[in-house]
Amino acid sequence: MYEVYERIGMETAIAVDEQLPLDHLLREKGRFKTETASGIETRVFLERGNTLQIGEVLKTQCGKTIQVTGAQEDVITATCDDWETFSKACYHLGNRHVKLHIGDKWLRITPDHVLEEMLQLLGLATQHEQAIFSPESGAYSQSGENGKHHHHSEHMHH
Fold first, then answer.
1. In 10 A of CB 23, how many CB atoms?
2. How confident is the model over 28-43, as pLDDT tens digits?
3. Domain locations in the chain?
4. What is the CATH number of domain 72-132?
C-alpha cells in the first residue's frame, strides 16, 4: 500500500513509478483511498481545496513517484461547427457555474439532461461517452486567499 503526503508538482524530468487514474471529483479531494493503474491500494492525505492536476507527480512515503492521470468517466460531449454557437454555449453554461471542459469547438459536461437539451437548442450535437473530464479551474482558484475579498471600508474612522 502507498501513502501519499507530498506533491512534487508538474515535474516532467522525473521518472514515474506508477500512474494514478483519478476522475474529476477525486482530483478535487484532499483525502481519499484509491488504486494505482497496476492495482496497488493508495491512500492520499493532502491539503484540501487544492485540486490535483492531470500530469502532476506525487511522492509516496516510501519514496515512489506517482503521476496523476485522468480516469474515464461518464460525460456529455457537445460539438458544433462555428465559433459563435460554441461561444454562446460556453456563455450559457458559465452563467450557470457549470463545470466545463473546453476544447476546439467542443465542450464536455457531466451528464445533465436539462443542460443537454439547452445545448441541443443552441445548435450543438451532443453525445454520451466515457472520456477524461478536466474542467476549467475558476478564475479565483489561483488566489492565495481562497477567493475571499477584504473590504477595509468598514474600518474607516471619521
1. 16
2. 999 999 999 999 999 9
3. 2-70, 72-132
4. 3.30.70.790
Enter the pTM of the model: 0.80
CATH 3.40.309.10 is right for the domain spanning 2-70 = no
> Residue 64 is placed in which grid cell?
515512489
**Segment 89-114, tens digit of pLDDT:** 999 999 999 999 999 999 999 999 99
H-helix or E-strand spanning residue 41: strand 41-45
Alpha helices in the chain (DSSP H): 24-28, 83-95, 113-122
Asked if residue 14 lies in contact with residue 8, where contact means CB atoms within 8 angstroms, the answer is: yes
- What are the residues whose beta carbons fall under 8 Å from the beta carbon of 89, sequence distance 6 or more? 78, 80, 107, 119, 122, 124
70 Cβ contact list (under 8 Å, min separation 6): 21, 22, 23, 24, 54, 132, 133, 134
